[in-house]
């Protein structure tokens, strides 16, 4: 039993959101689900979101370039931040998607190495790191 290792938990691949939908709109969604157009309400909502993102794809691409955003998943390890600190630099984190800061990053290291954070999507970090960077998160 001493050879057992705890596996690292995988970060979730999605962020849960809550929306309020009017009763009539909800009824329309339920009707489409009942008629077999969608497997459930979530399927309808995801499809609607993808359709809107597709309709605005060119504007999104232009905005990503204009705002110099990294697209997708971006993880910052303790080693990454220690390398930045050793080089005497500071990070400006701009991500569209998921930015995560490793659990072993101390609030002090985060403050020393991260100048600003702008995330369109989700930021995953310990509560203490988020608190330490609160004035730098937009």
From TrEMBL:
GO biological process, one term: regulation of DNA-templated transcription
Domain of life, source organism: Bacteria
One matching Pfam family: RHH_8
Name of the protein this chain belongs to: CopG family transcriptional regulator
Organism listed in the record: Methylocystis hirsuta
